[in-house]
Amino acid sequence: xxxxxxxxxxxxxxxxxxxxxxxxxxxxxxxxxxxxxxxxxxxxxxxxxxxxxxxxxxxxxxxxxxxxxxxxxxxxxxxxxxxxxxxxxxxxxxxxxxxxxxxxxxxxxxxxxxxxxxxxxxxxxxxxxxxxxxxxxxxxxxxxxxxxxxxxxxxxxxxxxxxxxxxxxxxxxxxxxxxxxxxxxxxxxxxxxxxxxxxxxxxxxxxxxxxxxxxxxxxxxxxxxxxxxxxxxxxxxxxxxxxxxxxxxxxxxxxxxxxxxxxxxxxxxxxxxxxxxxxxxxxxxxxxxxxxxxxxxxxxxxxxxxxxxxxxxxxxxxxxxxxxxxxxxxxxxxxxxxxxxxxxxxxxxxxxxxxxxxxxxxxxxxxxxxxxxxxxxxxxxxxxxxxxxx
Length: 390
Prior knowledge:
Blueprint: H1 11-23, H2 27-32, H3 43-57, H4 64-73, H5 82-90, H6 99-126, H7 133-150, H8 159-175, H9 188-194, E1 202-207, H10 213-227, E2 234-238, H11 243-255, H12 259-264, H13 271-284, E3 287-290, H14 297-311, E4 315-319, H15 333-351, E5 355-360, H16 383-387
Parallel strand pairs: 1-5, 2-3, 2-4, 4-5
């Protein structure tokens, strides 16, 4: 019987890192910028590195004597191979000059092991009958995304080059005829106030039923994806209307044809050329529509991630928030809406795109003499106003 494959590892690189720190105490600062104890494959090396970190935290020198004493106090000296193994680490490398390169090797092996662990977990859970597929997909995507984000930690930089880059951006904005830095909405006053919907922002459009929320959202998507210079790809998650109805509304808006005539079939002769041109405009627009009813946060997030990866979407519209499901068991509907709102905000930051969520207002405003809506009128959750940027 052949031995099973060992997980990805590079013990030479691990030993070189530890030996480099013992030679040059300043090396630990460079090491800590790149890796964590869990990145070491050998448990022995993890324990040694943790002891080195403790010495560094206490601002004490990390040499053969202090490291030996620290491990002895923790009762781990014999477990790591005794003082003789630490002495071997000192002699393992002549210099600490290459620790950053060794860290890169160790980090890559660690990422490979994590990928194997995720894949194994997916296979195991896929065989379990009680596993929720959407939850499994979401967790797998989340784990993979986190690995990708943490593979190489961003390094600090001095402020001088950042100032230079900031002035490049400022000059570029000053030279532009159009001062819209985000996704343009097509509404001049709104664009002037917001400079367009910004990446990572959660925008809430709230009103009572039949007040034009969907029409406003569709107009924004139409302008962003079909009429603006940027031609931003957008996706509409429509939980209330079917995709055919949305397309009819798009055509009516672009063609300037009365929607009631389209629904009843009482067309004017002038309507057909307009609708034909509108169909051409809509055909060239990168607009995606998903009309899954009562979609869960997990499913929406999974679809949005895939669309971002495959089509680089720059705008997400959800119509509307109160029709979504959190996908988890929660005691109250208010808590569920709060969780959905937080998830949409997190999604906007994760993908770096604005998320426009439509929301219902409660009936209380209709009982007031002043019908102008307030933040407290947001239906079923006060958390929406906390999560929203606009």
